[in-house]
Give the backbone structure.
Amino acid sequence: MKNLRVGLLGVGTVGGGSFEVLWRNQHEITRRAGCEIRITRVADMDLAKAKALVGDRAEVCDDGFSIVNDPDIDVVLELVGGYGVAKSLVLAAIEQGKHVVTANKALLAVHGDEIFAAARKKGVILAYEAAVAGGIPIIKALREGLTANRIEWIAGIINGTTNFILSEMREKGLPFAEVLKQAQALGYAEADPSFDIEGIDAGHKISLLASIAFGIPVQFNRAHIEGITNLQAEDIRYAEQLGYRIKLLGITRRRPEGVELRVHPTLIPAKRLIASVEGAMNAVWVKADAVGHTMYYGKGAGAEPTASAVIADLVDVARAFAVPAGLRVPSLAFQADAVLDTAVLAREHIESAYYVRLRVEDQPGVLADITRILADGGISLDAVLQREPDAGEHQTDVILLTHRCIESAVDQAIAMIEALPTVLSSAVRLRLEDLD
């Protein structure tokens, strides 16, 4: 097998980590791949930074397209990020007949169908293990390890920034804004953290996992996404009292009517293994018919954990280099002609249990009025918690946990409850998943 010559686009955190890990572990990687994998050219707009990293170990330039068009490059490693020039570079590399490895979940979530189709047409490999959950090999597990199974659902903590924030809020009882500043000071959150805290990053990732699990097109634009910016410390505290923890989960579930695709803060039982995932760690829980429950845990970001996945993709490319395109593992696990345009269900058709917190007058009959509205809407209760009012107060919090129901029914019931004169503020509603 001939040696694999790689052109690296971008020497940021992941690009720099990938270069160093590949260089450091060259001997072990060669033994596994059956050939030498070497980054021979590197492109970055910051030439000084690139040269400081690479030294004389590779040629450095500031023009990514010169690498894409270089006939001596076998694989383009795209670690630029974003939707703009990265898309042009990836499509140009594919058009040149080069295999592509990327960690760019945003690009694939938004433009994946176009890019996967281009790769199929040219018969090249598009590998993207590092795009979801950093160093955790969840894509390989879904695409290959669980290929005998019918996947039922996936629930993942797939954004380390938000998991760190929620862990700190729970452990220290601090408000969201204060913990966000702490996360930024520690480098867990960007100066503009909106992609993380608004759930967009997790939405990109769960959209890709849904496609691999269910054999459907990538449909990020249809995902229901809520972040953690409005989450209150008291709801985390009440959840703990009821035996639950709140995590930002990416969830996709197969249902007879279609596929659920959503990201939102979620109550999960504290006894579930995924509930104990703290700090900036990631975890993905998969339920399949044959194997049952499996969970994949590890670092979801960082230079070398993500580089681990990037280089694993390079090894896969090396192993499959001479394999005819029709015999390779499909990018989205299913053969192209077997991908189904299954409907992604709208938010109002989501089926879940719910946590509802209400601020109410402390007087007789209030709870009876609320439960009557819920019962009329076909919503049954699993638990009720009513806090004793503080001395001298005449209002209190009521917390309700419902059984599973359709979200549109909850919408209607909450609108009627909020109209009651004894209900003093808008309801706080969070979804609850037992993950059983």
In short: The chain has a mean pLDDT of 96.
